[in-house]
Amino acid sequence: MDFKEIYFSALLSIRQNKLRSFLTLLGVVIGIFAIIGVMTAINILQRTVEDNMGGLGASTFQVQKYPNMNIGNTRWKYHNRKNLDYRDFKRLLPKLDVVDYATAEDWNYGKQVVYRDKETKNNIVMAGITHNWEFTNNLNIERGRMITQTDEKSAAHVMVIGYDLVDLLFANIDPIGKDVKVDGIKYRVIGIAERKGQRFGQSQDNRVYIPLTTYFKYYGQASFTSLNYCFTVVDPDQFDAGMQEVTHELRLIRGVEIGEENDFEVWTNASLIDNFNQMTAAIKIAAVIIASIALLASGIGIMNIMLVTVSERTREIGIRKSIGAKRRDILYQFMLEALILTEMGGIIGIILGIIAGNVIAVLMKTSVMFPWDWAVIGLAVCSAISLVFGSYPAYKAASLDPIKALHYE
């Protein structure tokens, strides 16, 4: 028998036992689906995190009260920390030599901006910021100007707006110099931020920026909210020194004793990505373990069903051997049947896993991903399962004595 004949004979056997074949490959489908689905989703999340960490530049770091990623039930530990306030920020500024730009910020969500008879939805993000914020957060001004130190000192009612507001409120109108209202408070538009698009599936252009001191007048003084501090070190060789400088001076200002841990968090893009990767590594390991158990069970199922198949087809094997089929032909046929079953299950599992994993991409409004590496690994695992668990039934079938097989009832 040539390979083509063996292949079609194996396919015919699978078609004749559809229910058995389906139950055999179901375990393979579940195992491959689990690992491909999880890996696809995690890879999409990792790509999204890395692509969208442009809010902080490579030479920028941030200080805040809470960790950026809080794993475990430890929120109250951080909740009891002293807030990062405006007074401490002002005390910190004159002590900085290495850091080139330092800013503070606070955020308020769900705002509505009104211009004459037009209004936005209640989904506008308001940021109270200090001057130089454009240098620490990669914010470019397309028209007009940014908030200045004078605006900050005088708590001016001025505002920089994002492009979503331009599109909604100022179609065919120059927004610069126009007055808008938020919560009934009037602000003059002084600048338009460059269009930034989406990050993590959320628009970065539905934002407005006002001086932090103005923000405090209406949304809480510094003592009632914990600010985020942002620092930029232009010289990359001085970046670590800048972080050490800020950490040291903040510890002194906040009265942290020698030997005690910081009562604030310092993070960069790189540290955030590392923390995220550490978290997803545990999920990947869990997915591999679950998939391995499912694939092991499916492998045992394949071996059991192949043994039953050998028993049911003993007379067929005897007839084929009596008319000239060689031992290797029988061996190849049963090995090929096991391989086809597992590869079919693997392909179905890969397709379903990719579809399920890319649901994350659809929800986050990012491009879909095909994990070629894990697809190849999945098919290789299926091949290994067929070789390991299909070899004994195939060997048993190939070793049958043709005379005894012909008399088998």
Molecular structure report:
The protein has 15 helices and 14 strands. Strand 10 (198-199) and strand 11 form a beta hairpin. The chain has helices spanning 3-16, 18-51, 75-79, 86-92, 133-136, 149-154, 163-169, 212-219, 239-254, 269-312, 314-322, 327-357, 359-363, 372-398, 402-406, and strands at 60-64, 101-111, 113-115, 118-119, 124-129, 141-144, 158-161, 179-182, 185-193, 198-199, 202-203, 207-211, 228-232, 265-267. The chain starts with a helix and ends with a helix. It is α+β, with helices and mostly antiparallel strands. It has two domains: 3-51 and 273-406, no CATH class; 57-267, no CATH class. Helix 1 packs across helix 12. The mean pLDDT is 83. The longest helix has 44 residues, at 269-312. Strands 1, 2, 3, 4, 5, 6, 7, 8, 9, 12, 13 and 14 form a twelve-stranded mixed sheet that branches. It is 54% helix and 16% strand.
Question: How are the elements arranged and paired?
Answer:
Elements: H1 3-16, H2 18-51, E1 60-64, H3 75-79, H4 86-92, E2 101-111, E3 113-115, E4 118-119, E5 124-129, H5 133-136, E6 141-144, H6 149-154, E7 158-161, H7 163-169, E8 179-182, E9 185-193, E10 198-199, E11 202-203, E12 207-211, H8 212-219, E13 228-232, H9 239-254, E14 265-267, H10 269-312, H11 314-322, H12 327-357, H13 359-363, H14 372-398, H15 402-406
Parallel strand pairs: 5-12, 7-9
Antiparallel strand pairs: 1-13, 1-14, 2-5, 2-13, 3-4, 3-8, 6-9, 7-12, 8-9, 10-11
Short description:
The chain is an alpha+beta fold and 409 residues long. Helix content is 54%, strand content 16%. A hairpin with a 2-residue loop joins β3 and β4.
